[in-house]
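Q: For a teaching handout, I want to show students what a protein-ligand complex looks like in C-alpha cell form. Below are the inputs, and the small molecule is fe (iii) ion. Please produce the holo structure.
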Amino acid sequence: LRILGIETSCDETAAAVVERDAEGHSKVLSDVVLSQLDEHSAYGGVVPEIAARAHVEALDELIEEALARANVSLADVDAIAATSGPGLIGGLLVGLMTGKAIARAAGKPLYAVNHLEGHALTARLTDGLSFPYLMLLVSGGHTQLILVRGVGQYERWGTTIDDALGEAFDKTAKLLGLPYPGGPAVERMARDGNPDRFNFPRPLVGEARLDFSFSGLKTAVRQAAQEIAPLSDQDVADICASFQKAISRTLKDRIGRGLQRFKAEFPVTGEEPALVVAGGVAANLELRGTLQALCDKNGFRFIAPPLNLCTDNAVMIAWAGLERMATGAAPDTLDVQPRSRWPLDSNAETLIGFGK
Ligand code: ATP
Ligand code: MG
Ligand code: FE
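A: Here is the structure, written as C-alpha cells, with fe (iii) ion included.
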C-alpha cells in the first residue's frame, strides 16, 4: 500500500508519501513540511486567516514535491489521506478539498483523517508498537491522554479543562517578554534558573480524574512577575525554571495515575506496556526526563518518535490512512466535510463537554 498524505490543520503545510509492503515493512518515501512560523511570529500566535491563505499558496507545489521526492506519480499511489479535523477550518478546507479533487481526478479512494489519530498511530510506524498503548499528546492546541486500543478505537482518559500545555508555555513566554513560540524560549531560560524560587500551583494534582489544567499556573506566573517587576534576566530564568518544575510535578502525578490505570485494565502478560508522547511540547528535555523516569519506575517503555514526526506533519496522516485502509475500512465519500472540532473518542464530547 502506498498513500499520499496531506496536512493543513494548523500552521504547517505538509505532504508525504508512505508505503507498506506485503511483508509489513513500512517506509517513508517523502516528507515535506513548510512551517508558517515566520508569518505568525509577529502576532505571537497563529492567525487563522493568514494560515489559510498560506496553505492555499503552498499546498499544490508541496504535493508535487512530495510525489517527486518519493519518485512516484499519482497513478502509483493507492489512496489519498487528508486531515479533515480538528483544527482551523480555513486550513482544513484547503487540504481536504485538494485531497478530494486529487482523489476524484486520479480515481483514487479518499480517507479523511482525524489529525489526532495521526499523532496517535505514529509510534506504530516508527517503533512497530502493538496495541494497546497509552498516548500523551502535548502540543499548542491539545493536551490529552489517550488509550489507543486499535485502529479507530480510542478512549480519551484525560484532557485539559482550559489551556493546552503548549499554549501555557506560549502565554507565559509572552508575558515574560520572550519570543514566540514560547516553549523553546522558556526551556532555554529555565536552564539558568532556580526552580525552587517560586512555588507555582500544581492544578488537579492528587485528584482521581485524569484531566489537566494550566490556566491557573499562567495566572500565578503573571502575579509573580508583576510583584517583582521590573524583571532581571535572573528573575525571568527563575520564573521559567519554577514554571517548568510545576508542570513536571503535575505531569508526574497525572500521567502516573494514567499508568496505574493502564496496568489495572491491561495486566502485563509479555511485553512491557508503553507510553508514547507526541506534540511539540515533547521537545522539552526536562519534561521528557520526567516522563522517562516515571515510565522506568512503573515498568513502562517510554517512546518518543523523532521530533519531526512529533510535531505536525503529513507522514502521520498518510500512515493513519494506510492503517485504516489495511483494516479494510471503506474510504470516505467525496461529500465528507471538514470539522474544526472532532474528538477522537466519540463519547468524549458528551462525557466532558468540550471537544478539543
Ligand atoms: P496542534 O494542532 O497539533 O495542536 P500545534 O502547531 O499547536 O499543533 P505543535 O506544532 O505540535 O503544535 O507544537 C507547537 C507547540 O509546542 C507550541 O506551543 C510550542 O511552544 C511548544 N513547544 C515547542 N518546543 C517546546 C519546548 N522545547 N518546550 C516546551 N514547549 C515547546
Ligand atoms: Mg504547529
Ligand atoms: Fe498536531
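A: Two things your students might notice: The longest helix spans residues 233-265. The pocket of magnesium ion (ligand 2) is lined by residues 10-12, 140, 311-312 (CB under 6 Å).
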